[in-house]
């Protein structure tokens, strides 16, 4: 049985590995001429790294990652700590897997190697344009003119998924009202920056800093509420002067990080309300194609990795059938919908606009961190504690 996966991002490659491991012939079709990712970091929480373990790539990921000692929230302008949760040993002890910070290009490279090793065929520079179902079965049409017959099509083609559009009709994603700036700089620009994932909160904006590539680089993401955005692609150049206008007067070392960046990129952030359905006959969706969410919970890629493993389990259990795809959606949709809600809510938490709302939000958080640290830690259990390897389908 042959499965075509549209899209060779984190979700598509994870699905390709998982599906080929359970015995399917898999072809990934990616519109870009090379399988790569942008020069930015990504956080992989323990639920995501348990997924990487299921795919057989966790050791390779650990080897090129940085492991944060703590997860922190600070006030952007002053650097004052709101909470600080230990995560290095705790991730393994409490959740059974490490918390990693990885460069996206490194993650894609190791997923690509694993996919090729598993026998996945990857066709680059070809865009999935449409699919057709008729008496001859399912066929996928590419912009190159090629037609690829298959038994199942998985649309892992991102927030503006072509497969989703054909399945459910034209429907624009929702602009979250915020753009993300991103850049990386050598770690010696800010040697005192703690080995931590730090959310720096501020009025109408927040920043996130952490180290990637074995600690050699610092990844900076700045999120600003604005109605003005230039583009949606990862390689949309940003204006360092404008970025410095938003974050240049924040606590050290943020100004140094921005001042030493040679360039930056900006990306308008879109999400979608939960879809009415993820599948239609032998066509299904995965990752951002079916549950695009804002990055304020750092879970979009984690959800795509989890989807990949659950989809493979469902197809292994019941073969390629509508029942398997319904099961996949039934298992995954409640969780991805809950994470979407929590990611949306976080934007408000990180962007408190004045001293009163900041005090009302961050004051109790600081107190809880001091008086009930185990309660603060347990708030992430429902996300990080999930072990996709043990999900029953
Ligand atoms: C600023 C920012 C920070 C983030 N941080 C985190 C984080 O720390 N942790 C986390 O878990 N998530 C994070 N995310 C979310 C994460 O990046 C996404 O959820 C994840 O990349 C989705 O993967 P995907 O494979 O579903 O889609 P995509 O990464 O969008 O991949 C889709 C692929 O399909 C290809 N494609 C598109 N259309 C077609 C077509 N018609 N035919 C063939 N190929 C096609 C594209 O070229 C692309 O390669 C962040 C997102 C942003 C914006």
Describe this structure in words.
The chain has 393 residues and is α/β, with parallel strands linked by helices. The protein contains 14 helices and 19 strands. Strands 5-4-13-14-15-12-17-16 form an 8-stranded mixed β-sheet, with helices on both faces. α1 (10-21) runs parallel beside α10, α2 crosses α10 (300-318) and α10 (300-318) packs antiparallel against α11. Flavin-adenine dinucleotide (FAD) is lined by residues 6-12, 29-32, 42-43, 48, 127-128, 156-158, 162, 180, 182, 221, 267, 269, 287-289, 295, 298-302, 304. Flavin-adenine dinucleotide binds next to α1, β2, β3, β12 and β17.
Helix/strand/pairing category: alpha/beta
The distinct ligands, each listed once, are:
flavin-adenine dinucleotide
Rg from Cα: 21 Å
Report the portion of residues in β strands: 25-35%
Distance between the termini: 20 Å
- According to DSSP, the number of beta strands is 19
Largest sheet: 8 strands, mixed
Helix segment tally = 14
Name the shape in a single word.
Answer: globular
The poorly predicted ranges are: none
| Amount of helix | 25-40%
Mean pLDDT: 93
Strand order of the largest sheet: 5-4-13-14-15-12-17-16
